[in-house]
UniProtKB/TrEMBL annotation:
Keywords from the UniProt entry: Lyase, NADP
Name of protein: GDP-mannose 4,6-dehydratase
Species annotation: Xylanibacter muris
Cofactor(s) needed: NADP(+)
Keyword Transcription regulation tagged: no
Family annotation (InterPro entries): GDP_Man_deHydtase, NAD(P)-bd_dom, NAD(P)-bd_dom_sf
Taxonomic lineage from the root: Bacteria, Pseudomonadati, Bacteroidota, Bacteroidia, Bacteroidales
E.C. number: 4.2.1.47
Similarity-based family: Belongs to the NAD(P)-dependent epimerase/dehydratase family. GDP-mannose 4,6-dehydratase subfamily.
Catalytic activity: GDP-alpha-D-mannose = GDP-4-dehydro-alpha-D-rhamnose + H2O
Any one GO molecular-function label of the UniProt entry: GDP-mannose 4,6-dehydratase activity
Record domain NAD(P)-binding: where: 8-334
The gene coding this protein: gmd
Pfam families: GDP_Man_Dehyd
Function description: Catalyzes the conversion of GDP-D-mannose to GDP-4-dehydro-6-deoxy-D-mannose.
Length: 365
């Protein structure tokens, strides 16, 4: 590999992009990230990095080949981390074509830009793949050999991304690989993903700023890890001798209901769940108040309900520790962050408060 250490992160404003940028800056990389024009400048996750001499931002969109070619030609990265995506599974049912363009064709645009610019020998590429590829699962736990059965427009698009990366590796001998990452969360997680929705609601309910939390499928099972630990693996995958795909997971599974239980416990509320399906309720044991209810607004046309990863290969070949941060520690980190955030909310943060209200009412999913 080249001595120059120049990384390009698409999706640097996202949860993973922001942690990865921090990690690569610590490792001495020149870090370049792509951003999109938006009517509000909302770059909260990377605000602390802006202005650092080795951190650079460029406008580019995965839907726009010219911008991708332009930024890669200018930066000549030695490593590309393609993290940009429409990453919300439920939203992919509402915007399937956009999701396909960004999450499927967008990957092709990055690969082809590297090839056309003659950078195949000098640039390694990481593709943010996903456990959603296993979808309607055909075995548990899932490893690198488990058959895929994508079960949403998001997963179908990501499946194209996975296969086109493999194709470019074989056809053009490019160093490009996919990390098949299981769900990873953090205090920077988007507020409409289930874990963050729960930790924010627990904080707001505890502080008297929300009455109830409405959720969809409480029985859905996920293998949840800490995003900060997972970005290290992205880097390790590109430092490997050979380009290979890896499953990245903790190997431990919990339900949405359990996540809820632990989050509320952290704020001092013990929940008891009673009832089944749509009638299930999470009740405050101390007061008898119903704090969690099920709303069909959050059901998906097809839902992935049994994700559980086997990280054996990543442990053996990359020396990665999947259990650096435990499930309970992850929940506590997120809840503690949101208790402080909610306590600091005031009238000037009305927009964010409105989002909380919309989430509660199911207007935003
Ligand atoms: P995220 O917080 O939603 O961040 C997504 C990033 O992609 C944001 O920076 C977003 O920019 C950018 N983006 C969206 N559409 C774009 C477009 N058309 N052109 C350029 N950039 C665009 O997602 P994340 O949780 O960090 O996940 C990172 C990647 O890993 C995604 O590809 C996701 O699908 C994948 N993944 C995530 C998980 C997980 O559990 N977190 C698991 C497996 C795979 P804006 O800020 O401008 O919206
Ligand atoms: O938090 P989620 O929205 O994450 P999901 O669908 O697993 O997708 C995330 O992880 C994938 C990796 O497996 C990534 F590829 C993807 O980009 C994203 O980061 O939902 C988790 C589960 C689902 O089964 C959902 O039906 O929680 C269930 N759920 C129940 N109530 C809910 C809710 N999900 C959301 N977002 N909101 C609810 O109220």
């Amino acid at each position: 590999m080249e001595k120059r250490k120049v990384a390009l992160i698409t999706g640097v404003t996202g949860q993973d992009g922001s942690y990865l940028a921090e990690l690569l800056l610590e490792k001495g990389y020149d870090v370049h990230g792509t951003i999109r024009r938006s009517s509000v400048d909302f770059r909260e996750r990377i605000a602390h990095l802006e202005g650092k001499p080795n951190f650079h931002l460029h406008y580019a969109d995965l839907g726009d080949s010219m911008s991708i070619i332009g930024v890669i030609a200018k930066v000549k990265p030695t490593e590309i981390y393609n993290l940009a995506a429409q990453s919300h599974v439920q939203v992919s049912f509402d915007s399937p074509e956009f999701t396909a363009d960004v999450d499927a064709t967008g990957v092709l645009r990055v690969l082809e830009a590297v090839r056309l610019l003659g950078l195949t020998e000098t640039c390694r590429i990481y593709q943010a793949s996903t456990s959603e590829l296993y979808g309607k699962v055909e075995e548990v736990p899932q490893n690198e050999n488990t058959p895929f059965h994508p079960y949403s427009p998001y997963a179908v698009a990501k499946q194209y991304g996975f296969w086109i990366v493999k194709e470019y590796r074989e056809a053009y001998n490019m160093f490009c690989c996919s990390g098949i990452l299981f769900n990873h969360e953090s205090e920077r997680r988007g507020e409409t993903f289930v874990t963050r929705k729960i930790t924010l609601a627990a904080a707001r309910i505890k502080q008297g700023k929300q009455d109830k939390l409405y959720l969809g499928n409480l029985g859905s099972l996920r293998d949840w890890g800490y995003a900060k630990d997972y970005v290290e693996c992205m880097w390790l995958i590109l430092q490997n001798e050979k380009p290979e795909d890896f499953v990245i997971a903790t190997g431990i599974q919990h339900s949405v209901r359990e996540f809820c239980y632990h989050a509320f416990k952290r704020v001092g509320i013990e929940l008891e769940f009673h009832g089944e399906g749509i009638d299930e309720k999470g009740i405050d044991k101390a007061t008898g108040n119903v704090l969690v209810e099920v709303s069909p607004d959050f059901f998906r046309p097809t839902d992935v309900v049994n994700l559980w990863g086997d990280p054996t290969k990543a442990k053996a070949k990359l020396g990665w520790n999947p259990n650096k941060t435990s499930f309970e520690e992850l929940v506590n980190i997120m809840v503690d962050n949101d208790m402080a955030k909610v306590a600091a909310e005031d009238a000037s943060q009305k927009v964010r408060t409105n989002l909380a209200e919309y989430l509660e009412k199911g207007i935003v999913k």
